[in-house]
Design goal:
The complex is a heterodimer. Chain A has 14 helices and 3 strands. Chain A has helices at residues 2-26, 33-51, 58-76, 78-103, 109-126, 146-163, 168-184, 188-205, 209-229, 231-241, 252-264, 287-319, 324-348, 366-382; strands at residues 128-130, 133-139, 142-144. By secondary structure, chain A is mainly alpha-helical. By secondary structure, chain B is of the alpha+beta class. Chain B has helices at residues 2-25, 35-39, 91-95, 97-101, 112-121, 153-162, 171-174, 184-194, 229-234, 238-248, 251-258, 283-290, 300-311, 346-361, 416-435; strands at residues 48-49, 55-61, 67-71, 83-84, 88-89, 105-108, 127-132, 139-145, 203-205, 208-211, 214-217, 225-227, 315-317, 322-326, 333-334, 339-342, 376-382, 390-397, 404-410. Chain B is elongated, with a radius of gyration of 25 Å. Classes of the chains: A mainly alpha, B alpha+beta. The A-B interface holds A 200, 204, 247-248, 255-256, 258-259, 261-266, 275, 278, 292, 296-297, 300-301, 304, 307-308, 311-312, 315, 318-319, 327, 331, 335, 338-339, 341-342, 345-346, 349-351 and B 1-5, 7-9, 11-12, 14-16, 18-24, 26, 28-29, 31, 33-36, 39.
Amino acid sequence: MIRTLYRAWLEFTSWLAALILWLFLLQGQVYWWQPLLLWVTFMVLFFLTRAWGYDPGAMPFTAVLALTGWAFLTRLNPTWATAQFWGVLAGSAAYLVGIWVGSRKLSYPLLWASAALGLVFVTALVGESAGGARAWLRVGGLRFQPVELARIALVIYLAQALSQGRSKYELYAILTVFFSVLAWQRDLGPALLVFFVFAWMSLAWKFTWPKFLLYLAATAGGFAAAFYFFPHLRTRAIAWLRPWDYLDSKGYQILQGLFALRSGGLVGQGLGEGMDYVIPQVHTDYLFAVIGEEFGLLGTLALLVAYLSLAFWAMQLLQDVPDQTLRLTGLGLSLLLHIQVFMVVGGILRIVPFSGMTLPLVSYGSTSLVAQLALLGLVTGLGQKRSVE
Amino acid sequence: MRKSFLALLCMYGLLFAGLFHWHLIADLQNHPANPRYYYMFSRDRGRIYDRNGLILATSTPLEGGVYQRSYATPSLSHVLGYFHQRYGMTGLERLYHEDLSMGRTLLTSLDWNLQQTAEELLQGLNGAVLAIRPSTGEVLALVSSPSLDGNALDANWSDYLDDLRSPFLNRATHGLYPPGSIVKPIIYGAALEKGNVDRFSLWLDEGSLALQNRTIRNSGGKAHGNIDLDQALALSSNVVFAQLALSLGEGLLQDLKAFGLGQEVDFELSNLKGTVPAKIASAYDGAQIGIGQGELLVTPLQMAVVAQTIANDGVMMRPFLVTEVRGGLKMRQITRPRAIGEILPPAVAHALQEAMALAARQGTAQTDLSSSLDYGGKTGTAEMSQGQDHAWFLGFAPSTNPQVAVAVLVERGGSGSAVAAPIGAKLLAAALRMDE
């Protein structure tokens, strides 16, 4: 059954690629070779993974998500799409590296922990600010967000710390330092995400009610403290709870996102027919709303189904892994992706407060793309090798 | 692992529910903060046609892929409404916005020529005119003067705001006036239906009637002598109709309500319900209602429906403007004429038609056209305590088997016979020509 699914997705990918090619050849776009190359890249990755004996099932869904993101970025601003194109190519390399690293069984927990802390420390010390958070690092001509990679390293550490009975004090010390640095950088979205992933992993490893209640209390306390100390979070909370009272200030972005979704209706206005220019931060935070307006409910549902398929794929893959630590690592990495989807889409849908992160694999952002593809590579590498049929 | 996946599934389920709500259910399209609401005013839109296939409203493309709405004649602003980025939408444009914005077409019962004739007849006057097809309730013309020019709102808006004649007021649906003598056909019909009067018995009209230390007088205090009821209607005898109203007692109020007075008319355009007093306090009040004075207030739309009912042999039809909505992916939507009820027995309605034809030949509704046009009519002069009176005319043509019914109101116009009846007769003549 799962094979049929892959085949269907592959066919869809080729169809999407063909459609984009046709559109852009017809419209005389100069970037027509980019989707073609992306499609070829994903195909190569798919067959390479299979030839090495790993499960290539993540690739079709990834291809759909990344190509959709690329198509919408082209429609918004071709410059962004070109950056995204190079991001996917870099991400492909990261995916292959991820498979290799994942297959090495990921020991040395303290190495991963120090990698995570080192990355955030360096950012905190010499990083650059943008959008209210000091989250950027410049190396040579490249600018990237180290926290995207740091949280992967941290999750790898967490899985080993939880499942191998390492000292609780060490675990809490590392977490405290990590969160403190992120809070100091005012980069709270990723901090919240890592906290939720940690709590989920801890409960998935061993569920007890006191622990559950403790995490719930910590979440509530964390929110209260954050609203007390960070004024920009108070603004976000108000935008979430009462956007209608602040139509043209705090609530502007969230309302424009909802208007866009409603305008999309069932089938959408069609590619290029939406009013993207009224939404702030449309290419990173709010690309999902543009997709909603132009492809409608069917388009956004398809996108979420692609994510859900990635979750299903990871679950199928990890079920057969005998090593508990690796299983917990795979779960943690998957959660890192899916909780982020929930926080971003849920934020746009006003289910949770908006946290200002990117939609994995779709939104503009090279670091994010590289990190997500590396993450998928790691999960693939963790899985059992299969014999090539 | 399985439990974690199920939890993730629940989270995605929550997102699906959210998407479903915000994509399909939430009521956001016309929210004032939604820029799409303003954008839609410059998009293409379905046309609106008159009954003969002439275009009443259309969107013409301008430079830059932008469309502008234009209308065949200014008086349509009170029927079709207007559609403008700054001033919003009204009338049928608003009511059928969803259909029109999807490119669907409205076919209306309006007749462009008759609408224009009515518009010209009311030129320079404040008032309202309605023409209705008696057998179906189709509205052929609806004019309220002064009107707004839907093609030049930007240029004139500030003038409209300052205009003391209130061009925004749709006098046909939202103007409230005492009916004056045009209420008399209703009184006459009710008395005949009850059977407590004989149509051909004679009444003595001495020009005035004393009631409770007060006096009801004929127009100009003129005494008509011995007249029957048809003549009393034709001559608009206040003395006879005051007595007729008194003979109906409290039932008079029910008879007025049966004709739809004091209630909103079931019509596409919103309209006011007017006033029918809750009870008759004294004989003098009852007599005042019988001659259309006192607390009674009506809209021209209500009186047009009264004219339609008399002309349609007593069967009231629901008035309507939109006969069909077509185009797009949806099914055609056709409006069928609907009878509201038999308000008068056919014999009584025929008697009223004859009496009103007499009024048009020899009575107060007589005009220059009386010799050439076979019509029935009733005038009214609603007396105001201050300033000029309101002039009314109700009519239909031809006087037997009528094809069109009209109501005319000229605000502060003076006497119904002198001002409203000539407009009504010309309109009836134009409507009959249109049928040929």
